[in-house]
Task: structure prediction
Amino acid sequence: MLARTCLALALCLALPAMAEEAKKTPTPKELLAKSSPDEWRTPDPANLVYMDLPQGRVVIELAQDWTPQHAANIRTLIREHYFDGTQVIRVQDNFVTQWGDADGDDKAKAKSLGSAKETLPPEFTRKGGKYAFTRLPDGDVYAPEVGFSDAFPVARDPKAGEAWIAHCYGTVGVARDVGAETGNGSSLYAIIGQAPRNLDRNLAVAGKVLKGMEFLSAYPRGGEPMGFYDKPEQRVTIKSVRLAADVPAAERTPLQVLRTDSKTFAAVVEAKRNRKDDFYTRPAGKIDLCNISVPVRDPSKKP
Result:
């Protein structure tokens, strides 16, 4: 009888702790560790850009399905070695890091575009057509719907029949002058701060950084207006820019991206929306489009 009483008492004492443990949500890391191989995709090497900086490699996936003419022009610029020796020319705090030809505004000194086009149609939004879209459950200030298409954060207006890639952290856009057609891909920028969604639908988005944001976001901020460097020696010279398809297999950076139409991605989103553990005692219950970063992994390493 005493043994049964002790057992019942131990169970009763353990129940609150068990209940509390049950309330805890799995962490994204725990969810990713349990993902299946078919939930990850390997980006097309023809759409992967390797930008080698003195500090390391930045890997960018081109938005081929969203800005195809800009993607094609950027490939031409890369294959004709336009970007080799160009520089990081601007770092504006909480905004962007921009790279390109430091003399690009001076036609007498500007680097030749080779066979690349000087002007392109805007490609600020995508009209109609079928594309993968995983909708987020929460609202958005800038668009009726938001979600993900592959690695890209996407906003859309179903009634207007248009969609566009949002300017979240790591988004790579095409710099331009006042004219909408002046962005040709010869100067690019990456978002390094709080998502400036007001840029959406005003500039073409070329892609998204999959690896190497720690380099682009850490450069010293420029002292000139809009973060341009006021001294040439402050600029960072780009060693080379190549397409992964043109790089020997042994020199490629192995990467896989979690499919945004997978069960694991849905679970990761839900875990971030309603995270509850020893630290997060009050779940937000919502999540913003730009507060989700699509997981990227090295398939050669164990989770």
Summary: The domain at 44-258 is CATH 2.40.100.10 (Cyclophilin).
